[in-house]
Design goal:
Layout (H helix, E strand, L loop, with lengths): L12 E6 L15 H17 L4 E4 L11 H14 L3 E3 L24 E3 L6 E5 L4 E5 L23 E7 L1 E2 L11 E2 L1 H7 L3 E5 L5 E3 L6 E4 L13 E7 L5 E7 L6 E2 L5 E2 L5
Parallel strand pairs: 1-2, 2-3, 3-4, 6-7, 7-10, 8-9, 10-12, 11-16
Antiparallel strand pairs: 1-13, 5-6, 11-12, 13-14, 14-15
The structure holds manganese (II) ion.
């Protein structure tokens, strides 16, 4: 967990972090598993209700593509509304904003508890009454070497400053040809309390300097491994500490903050 900073106590808050749900991605063919994917997202919403989260962060690739069935859009809106707490989506490469966006196919602005990072330049969303601001940049499909956390804006005024983004963390064994690079120094330079990452199927913490906690929630369905994935519970403590708990969606035991693997960044 991050070293607690001095100063006034902060409001205790609890977030839930998921990503890479890929709703609508396995609707047809031998890989048909729409019911499983939808049941898994339903279980994420159930978890949020059970553990009393203040807000849900969805760090991209919520939808698999822009051609998903209308019923899939309706399902997503209904489940988000069912949480009855603020939900923030930071769009990824599969559900980018701009021309042809899946988010323009449904009146998501009518879902009262949903806010989305839509400005291609990046934007900060305030979660009313919670003392939380969430900054991020959405994917647009227009920038070939998009780096979601390059040159972040300074922290805002709310007590809790959260980052959200979707890309490929660069570590010593990382495949450099993959796009959307995220480096440890980018994450450190955000100076956010927590950075919610998406794009990877695996759940892991990643090194982000001495003051920033950052993690991939991984895919909740564990698509490649045919077993349940994880959702991350993010406890924001009064003393400024950020404490993660990995909640299993497929039957394994939960993992405490220090039991969650930590991937170190590349130093070159
Ligand atoms: Mn992705």
């Amino acid at each position: 967990m991050a070293a607690a900073a001095g100063g006034a106590p902060k409001p205790r808050r609890r977030l839930l972090h998921t990503s890479d749900v890929h709703l609508g991605g396995y609707d047809t063919g031998p890989e048909y598993k729409r019911d499983e994917v939808e049941a898994t997202f339903r279980s994420v919403i159930d978890l949020g209700r059970e553990v009393g989260v203040d807000a849900l962060l969805i760090a991209g690739d919520f939808f698999d593509n822009a051609r998903v069935r209308p019923e899939t859009l309706e399902f997503a809106a209904t489940e988000i509304a069912r949480l009855d707490r603020p939900v923030v989506i930071g769009p990824g490469n599969h559900d980018h904003v701009g021309p042809g966006s899946v988010y323009d196919r449904y009146p998501f602005h009518e879902v009262a508890n949903l806010q989305m990072i839509r400005n291609p330049e990046g934007e900060t969303l305030a979660l009313d009454g919670l003392g939380i601001e969430v900054w991020g940049r959405p994917h647009t499909e227009r920038v070939l070497d998009f780096k979601p956390f390059l040159s972040p804006p300074p922290r805002g005024s709310a007590p809790w400053q959260i980052g959200i983004g979707h890309g490929h963390y660069i570590h010593p064994q990382a495949v450099r040809e993959h796009s959307f690079h995220i480096r440890e120094e980018h994450l450190a330079s955000t100076e956010r309390d927590y950075v919610a990452l998406g794009h990877w199927e695996q759940m892991t913490r990643v090194a982000a300097g001495d003051r920033v906690v950052a993690a991939y929630s991984g895919c909740p369905e564990g698509l490649a491994h045919r077993k349940g994935g994880w959702a991350l519970i993010v406890d924001l403590m009064e003393d400024g500490a950020v404490v993660l708990t990995a909640h299993p969606l497929g039957g394994e035991a939960g993992l405490s903050h220090d039991e969650i693997p930590l991937l170190l960044g590349a130093t070159d």
